[in-house]
Design goal:
α6 crosses α7. Helices cover about 35% and strands about 15% of the residues. It has helices spanning about 50-70, 75-85, 115-120, 140-150, 195-205, 210-215, 220-235, 250-259; strands at about 25-30, 40, 95-100, 105-110, 155-160, 165-170, 235-240, 245. The longest helix is centred in the N-terminal third of the chain and has 18 residues, at about 50-70.
Length: about 260
């Protein structure tokens, strides 16, 4: 488990008051568009401030890991700051939503909200009281740091009102598409290390499904499925009537070039 984040304190008009023990945080992962999300409640939800650092660390570690499994590029620091920001809302109605193959994280709550969202994004503006400062910096640095981090990745940060009450903070970066390499005798692409391993396993195990690939590589089935789709789009895999994949001639030619 990662070290509990000693971070952020959004410049927000939120009340800190400890953990809400009746409304445990949830993580929602949208693996496929237009499909219901995978909802992951937090186990052993604490009922006192004494356990709040463990809760924050667990949420950061789990959410960041799930985003990475989807292929996301968002840095760990972004998760640390946005989840620490929930201290201001006492974690009321907290939901961490992962979208766009892990490249978008949306953190929502049912706290008192942020009336002045522009001020919340400027260093030095904070609503942290003495209780909140037990767990966060309390100097109004977090959201401005996240915005600067995302700007360096050509990403964005958005603050919105939640439905009824509360706040929604969305951090987003663009996914990295498979891009063409220099001209060779066959079409070539920049595959990730995991995609290359998937292609090699498909040669060895074909026809093969995402479940077997997931077992071999130690990743989630959804991650293996997404790599299958990317490799099919590149023309390196073909799907049979059972949904299992085999390597195409283009895939074999690619392996000959890169290996």
């Amino acid at each position: 488990m990662a070290t509990p984040p000693q971070s952020h304190d959004a410049s927000a008009s939120r009340d800190s008051g400890g953990v809400q023990d009746t409304d445990p945080p949830r993580i929602a992962v949208y693996v496929e568009a237009y499909s219901p999300p995978l909802v992951i409640p937090v186990a052993d939800y604490p009922s006192s401030d004494d356990h709040l650092p463990q809760l924050m660390s667990a949420l950061v570690t789990r959410a960041h890991s799930l985003a990475q499994e989807q292929g996301g590029r968002l840095p760990l620091a972004v998760f640390q700051e946005l989840i620490a920001n929930l201290v201001h809302a006492s974690f009321a109605g907290a939901v961490i939503t992962i979208l766009d193959h892990g490249n978008t994280v949306r953190v929502s709550d049912r706290g008192p909200g942020i009336p002045d969202k522009e001020a919340a994004l400027r260093p030095g503006f904070t609503s942290a009281d003495a209780r909140a400062k037990r767990f966060i910096r309390g100097v109004g640095a977090g959201l401005s740091m996240v915005r600067e981090t995302l700007a360096g990745l050509d990403g964005t940060l958005e603050l919105e009102d939640n439905l009824g009450r509360g706040t929604v903070v969305t951090a987003r970066v663009r996914s990295e598409p498979i891009t063409a390499l220099a001209h060779t005798s066959v079409p070539a692409y920049n595959l990730s290390e995991r995609q290359l391993k998937t292609l090699l396993l498909a040669v060895e195990l074909a026809p093969v499904g995402p479940t077997r690939i997931a077992q071999e590589l130690g990743v989630s089935t959804s991650t293996a499925y997404r790599d299958f789709v990317s490799l099919e789009e590149a023309g390196f895999l073909t799907s049979g009537h059972t949904g299992h994949r085999s390597v195409t001639d283009a895939g074999l030619a690619y392996l000959d070039v890169v290996l």
